[in-house]
Amino acid sequence: MAPSRRTNRGILAGTVLLVIVVACIVTAGCTAGTSTPGTAAGLTGVSWSLDTYLADNGTLIPALPESEVTARFDDDGTVVGSAGCNQYGSDYHLDGTALSISPPISTKMYCSEPEGLMEQEARFLELLASAAECQIENDRLEIIDASGAPVLTFVRGMPIDLAGSSWTLTSLIDEGGSMAPIITGTTVTTLFDADGIRVSGLAGCNHYSADYTRNGADITIKSAVRTDMYCGEPEGLMDQEDRYLSLLTDVSSYRVEGDRLILSDKEGADLLVFDRAAEVPDLPLVGTDWVLDSYSTGRDAISSVITGTTITAKFTDDSKITGSAGCNHYGGEYLLDGANLSVSSLFSTLMYCGEPEGVMEQEARYLGLFDSVAGYRIDGDRLDLLDEVGKVLLSYRAGCTDQP
Torsion angle of alpha carbons 283, 337, 166, 256, nearest 10°? Predict the structure, then answer.
């Protein structure tokens, strides 16, 4: 369970961009197993998770079980990670097995859980700055102070499984190679589905989805399909959306540091930084007013609902489905069996609507897709109706409707 925060997450957003002065060049590294002294094999590019640390009484004690304390040594001479509550960063220097770390700079949040977390964090940062030597053996990193005493021990971190997790983008690398915050007033999200095969979300204006594969910390995201809306405000939104979706295809690896997800390219450069999205309880299928956002137009193509039209669905507890198809009202029956869902006996009123252009074609497509519905999934306030192979046919969000 992630630590609870008493302060507003805005504090983190304003302070998480730490100013770390790199004062040295990495010239050598810790020895690891049979690695040759004078190389950095085994230390850099790995997320290390704290196992034990030196208590005030001079004994090594285990890290709190519900805390996430990490360290990642990068080739540019910086070390960053989560101290349990706050993110931190510093510069480091290696010479053989000799290691020095400058006093870390950290964000300034306060976390009340688990008990003792802030005391552990302060001790961890103090011990990190006392480093004089490091050794790696059997996927364990040991940091030793000037007296020769081990003060921190880490284990090689196993990347968490992203399946079922939701994230909100905070920054992305710009064309000049610098990390820049997203445009104020925009929201970009990503959801890794529970099956571990598809990622979807809001790209700022349009909804998108793409297949992905993961092997350890390596991840590949295929080109995304998205809806076809255009948003003129805020300025630059569509350019940001295009860049975000392009960067997703350049992703080669990932790491999770506390409540942050960082996606990197094959060279190890960070491309996209996300914060963990606040958990939203899943709404019930039955009784919720669902408003259509997008629908399948064949193969991998999806389309947004035509501007000026509203398409809705409501599943009632007597196994009926009702709603507006954009021009006409419709109804039918549904059968629910776990995550399996089928819709039958559809009927609709027989009005004709000439505006907006294409509304009748959209309505016919919408009602026709129900013939292929075989299942559903709900994530928070979003509902997807799926075909028999799990492809999204209809994507809704919860909302208020005027339907009877």
Answer: 140
pLDDT above 70 covers a percentage of the chain that reads 88
Q: CA-to-CA distance for 96 and 206, rounded, in angstroms?
A: 51
Under a CB-based contact definition with an 8 Å cutoff, are residues 327 and 353 in contact? yes
* Distance (Å, whole) CA 283 – CA 142: 47
In tens, the pLDDT along 329-356 reads 999 999 999 999 999 999 999 999 999 9
Global pTM reads 0.57
Q: Which fold does the domain 9-156 belong to in CATH?
A: Lipocalin (2.40.128)
Half-sphere exposure of 325 (CA within 13 A, CB side): 27
Question: Is residue 248 very low, low, confident or very high in pLDDT (cuts 50, 70, 90)?
Answer: very high
Name the CATH topology of 166-276. Lipocalin (2.40.128)
Cα dihedral sign, 124-125-127-131: positive
Strand (E) or helix (H) holding 368: helix 359-369
Overall average pLDDT of the 158-177 stretch = 89
Give SS3 for 120.
Answer: helix
Q: How far is CA 367 from the centre of its chain?
A: 33
Helices (H) and strands (E) in the chain, counts: 4, 29
Domains of the chain: which residue ranges? Answer: 9-156, 166-276, 290-398
- Name the DSSP letter for residue 317: T
The reply to whether 9-156 and 290-398 are identical in fold is: yes
Among 50, 88, 90, 96, residue whose Cα is nearest residue 69 = 50
Sign of CA dihedral 163, 167, 173, 179: negative
Alpha carbon distance 315, 322 (integer Å) = 7
pLDDT, one tens digit per residue, over 10-45 is 333 333 334 332 333 233 345 443 333 333 356 886
Distance CA 46, CA 71 (A): 8
What type of residue sits at position 314?
Answer: K
41 close to 35: Cβ distance less than 8 angstroms: yes
Residue 99 contacts residue 90 (beta carbons within 8 Å): no
Does the domain spanning 290-398 belong to CATH 2.60.40.740? no
Closest CA to 132 of 143, 118, 121: 143
One-letter amino acid of 345: S
